[in-house]
Amino acid sequence: MNIFLVAGPDPHAVQSVWQTLQGLGVYEVSPSHRDGLLPQDIHQMMGESLVEITTAVDVEITSDTPKPMRAAWRELAADLWLANLQHPMWGWHMSNTTHLLDYWLDFDPHILLVLAYNTPAEYLQQQLLGISEISPQLVEKHLEQWSFTTETLLAQYYAASPRCVLVHSGTVVYQPGLLSESMSQQWGIQLTPAATDQSLLAATPPCGVDQYLMTQIISSFPATGELLQELEATAHVPSYSGSHPEASVFQLWTQHIAAQQQAQLQATQASEKITQFRTQLNQARTEGDQKLVALTDAYESLLLQLDEAQQETEHYFLLNQNATEQLQVAQQVSNFWQRNAPGVITVNLCNDIDGSNWYHAEDDGRWAGPGVVSTLQMPPVLAGYYVVELMIQDAMQPEIVVGMQLGVVSGVGSVQSIDLVHDFSQDSSLYPMVSSGAFDLATQHHSWVLQMSLPGNHCPAEAGGNDTRRLGLKLKTLRLSRQ
Fold it and tell me: What architecture is domain 344-482?
């Protein structure tokens, strides 16, 4: 039985991570049999008792206050445990108070702690929402509060490790697989999304423009930035800030928007001046030809300025349109990588794939066949230097692996060969093993294919077996990393 306690200083972050855990199959705690109490009810009773104890000795409740271990509290907690024995994985969440968090960790050494946090940018967005007048002093006040609670959170993490994982709430909601992977690495617990709750997997990613602008505000407070760096370096699942490949496109995009707006403003001002001069021209016609000629010259000059402003507006519109197209391509790449890890694409052949010349998926991979040329359709990637790793579970003969040819097929049909290095297992069976290679993509690929050509294949039935398929090698996963 695994018991999870989600805690943190921000109730929104804690609630988001708890909902993600529920989507991964964790049951919410059931009330105790005897008194029908939930952990929140026991927390209230503990808090009331602590107030009585500390008031009697005139001591403020702090993290240094001794933890009273009353028998009544243990009986209530034990009854709660008995009510949830039927669940293999269960838990609850709380916006943690240090003495309550320590109590639960001391009560049961099997409780696993998930600490949730948010970034100072997200904290500011919550605190400043709806405020019309935002001063530097108000921003500094909220950032100081974020720093205080974050330092307390890090202290709790260091005290509870290795029973604890530290995660960013926004990343976990958008990529629940990262939370499952971190828990597997930290505790050896495998969690998969529940079949009845797929909504978390379709969560909307954070707005990159808002994140970029808020980061500019925080850059004015170095102490906050240093604390955020420590938090991100410590976290098992850090935030997505700074990991968007489209960040440079955002800057280009905003620059073009500003330039375009400036050109439009100039055109508007020139148009207003033309209107004024038209009025003056009509009035001047009655005053003499000499003034009329001067105003006509000024009018023509303004027309020329308007034409130049319109041309400049069209120029920046085209630049903005080009930047928007770059942004869309970068977001396609970013969205795919976020489903795995930054800069890494993993194809699991035990799942559904887009490719050709493969047999049906098995528990440990998928056999190539019946032909000798197999393909995998890959998602869009940026130009760069890549390392590809083939996790091979089995092969009909080692010569098939050694003689394998791997290549990149672009949209025009050309094939770029990849030299492979084969690392066979030290076991007598030689498998599982890894074949890896590196290649350079000089240009951005919107649609491309990895092609695997084998020197041959064999049918087990020809050697007296029951399997009549023609098999080459069994591939479990393919991993592509941008260096």
Answer: Sandwich (2.60)
